[in-house]
Amino acid sequence: MNMEEYRGVWVFIEQRNGELVDVGLELLGAGRDLADKLEVDLCGILLGHNVKDRAKDLFEYGADKVYVIDDPILELYRTETYMKAVGDLVRKYKPEIFLYGATANGKDLASAVATEVMTGLTADTTLLDVNLDKRLFEASRPAFGGNIMATILCKKHRPQMATVRPKVMKKADPQPGREGELIEESISVQEENLKTKVIDIVRDTNKAVNLEEADIIVAAGKGIKDEKGWKMVEELADVLNATVGASRDVVEMGICGHEHQVGQTGATVTPKLYIAIGISGAVQHVVGMQNSELIIAINTDPDAAIFNASHYGVVADAFEIVPLLTEEFRKV
Ligand code: FAD
């Protein structure tokens, strides 16, 4: 492999129904910094149907070039089609670094592309840099339950790829009217040759749980005891316009679904406010919420580990204090 042929920083721009997902814009912010250090172009990769017009937003958020494949076959995300389209672009244009959001689709696509083009992938990173002397991408992520940061290098393959957690990087300030180069490509795949077919789309009718993008999370631990306690937490969340999170124990008790789980095997969240109710503060939970801007814990045990990870702690019975908080916030 001739590594010198690989140049440019790429960002996969995820879109849902034509709306750009925030993490793509955040990665343009982080990618701009890497591209400037390496003195290369920052490029957005935009796939979908009727999405071409969104390229101008990407220029305003820092992209120098946008590669677009606009085709009905890409309207819905499917691993097979997206992997093929992105794999072809990588083989043709040879990027040096390629970033994806660590969303469900981003993680799925990045791992598929890594096998398609035979390169490595660092998953779930939170810190990105480049070593200019060695011209190596340094992607770092928490390891050993968040106790250390592991920096992972991809020395022998290109592109160097990483998925990056949402809400960790900052979007650049948009520059209205900033222009760039739009490069339109096509996909060579035909529907009849695909192994996966979309037969039906069943929308989840439950209130969507989007922990990663929530500004306020009220999270319940085993201390809330049962469905009645969960309802109490939901009521507080409702008046605060918050999303409800949970520890793994609450999920395992069958009180809520896994989509509510925060932690090592759940979501990593960075809201402005995280209220932990009846959560002990096991390391596997804390790694998922420790980067929240403001953490308030409510627990009957003054020695609970959650207080070490919190800015404010309330030693109290949740069943007494939570209804009072709900009542007071309702007045505001
Ligand atoms: P507990 O540890 O039982 O804590 C309950 C707390 O409630 C106690 O501190 C208690 O003092 C308090 N309490 C009791 N009654 C009240 C009351 N009336 N008012 C106020 N407080 C009260 N856990 C996660 O959360 N997320 C993960 O992603 C995750 N991944 C894991 C992965 C692995 C590989 C492993 C081994 C474990 C993982 N866990 C995860 C589990 C984790 O280790 C803990 O078991 C779990 O977080 C504990 O949940 P909890 O705090 O709700 O329960």
Task: Summarize the structure in words.
With 332 residues, the protein is α/β, with parallel strands linked by helices. It has helices spanning 22-38, 55-60, 79-93, 104-116, 227-240, 248-252, 283-289, 318-331, and strands at residues 9-13, 15-16, 19-20, 42-48, 65-70, 97-101, 121-125, 127-131, 136-143, 148-152, 160-164, 181-185, 216-220, 243-246, 273-277, 294-299, 312-315. The strands form four sheets. It has a seven-stranded parallel sheet, sandwiched between helices. The longest helix has 17 residues, at 22-38. The chain is globular and about 65 Å long. The protein starts with 8 loop residues before the first strand and ends with a helix. The mean pLDDT is 94. Flavin-adenine dinucleotide binds at residues 221-223, 247-250, 261, 263-266, 278-280, 282, 284-285, 288, 298-301, 304, 317-319. InterPro entries: DHS-like_NAD/FAD-binding_dom, ETF_a/b_N, ETF_a/FixB, ETF_alpha_N, ETF_asu_C, ETF_asu_C_CS, Rossmann-like_a/b/a_fold. It holds the Pfam family ETF. Belongs to the ETF alpha-subunit/FixB family. Keywords: Electron transport, FAD, Flavoprotein, Transport. This is Electron transfer flavoprotein subunit alpha/FixB family protein.
